[in-house]
Amino acid sequence: MQASSITMSKRRRIFWLVPLAALAVPLFTNPYTQFIANGMLVYTLVTLGFSVVIGNLGQLAFANTAFFGIGAYVSAIAGSALGFPWLVTVPLAGLAGAAGGFLASAAALRGIRLYYLAIVTMAFGELMRWFYTHASAVTGGTDGLPVSRQHDFGIALTSDTVQFYIFLAITCLLVAGTVNLLRSRIGRAIIAVRENEIATASLGIPTSKIIVTAFMWSGFVVGVAGSMFALHTGRVFPESFGLTQLIINFAMVLVGGLGSVAGAVLGAVALTALPEYVRAFPGMEEIFFGVIVMAVLLVMPKGLASLLARFSPLFQQRYHRD
Q1: pTM of full prediction above 0.85
Q2: What is the pLDDT of residues 248-260, one digit of tens each?
C-alpha cells in the first residue's frame, strides 16, 4: 500500500511538472509555432475524449466529429450571435457536447456493437455536418461562421500567447478530471464493461448508466475542445468536421495508445507537429502522415505510451487495452 502511495505521488508530480514546463513555451516560439502549439492543446482534448469511448469503454463509436462540431458551433453561435464572452461559451459547448454524447449512447444502449455501432455513430457525425451546411441561417452554411474574439473580462483573446495559457489551463483541468474519473468507481466500472459487459451486469453494476456516462464525458471533453478550436481558427466551417477529421482523430488515438491518458497527449502532439515539417512540399503532408501512423503501429502496436513505459514503471498505464 505504501509503495502504491509513493508511485501515485510521483505520478502526480510528473503530471504537474509537464504543464509547468509548458508555461515557458511562448518564450521560445514565433507566431507560427505558437499557433501549432495551441493546436496541440486542442487536439489533446479531442484525442482524450475519443480515447475514453474507444479505448476505455471499448466501444467502436465514431461520433467524435459530431461532438467536436457541436462544441465549435455552439461556442461560435453563443459568442457571435448572442454576444456571450468566449469563456462563458466554453462550458456551454461542453454541455452541448455531452448532450450529443447522450444521443450517441442511445445506439449502444440498443445493443448495437462493433462495426454497426461504428457506422451508426459515423452517420451521426455526417448528419451534423449536413445540418451545419444547410442550416445557413444559424450556422452560416458553407461560408462558415465567424468567432467573436472580443476582450473577455479584460483578456485579449486575439493573442495566440494568451490563448495558449487559457488552453493549457483548460486542458490540465480536463486531463486531471479524466484521470480522476478513470480512478473512481465509475472508471473501474467503465473498464469492467470493456472487458466483459455481461459479467459486469451480473455483479449488479448498471452497465447502461456506465455507458451513457462514458459517452457524455467524452462528449463534454471533445465539446470543450470544439470551443477551443473555434477560437483557435477564428471561423468554423462544416468541412472541418467531416470524415477527414475523424480519420485524423482516430489516428491520434492509435498512435498514442488505446485507453492511455498519456498516449492521448503524445498522439495529439506527434500528429499535430510532425506533418508540419513537410507542409512546404505539396502532397507530401498526407504521405508523411500515413508513414508516421504505419511506422508507429508496426513498431509499437500499443502506441507511443508503451515507449514511455519501457523507461519507467511510473508510466505503466492501468487503463490500456491490450
Answers
A1: yes
A2: 999 999 999 998 9
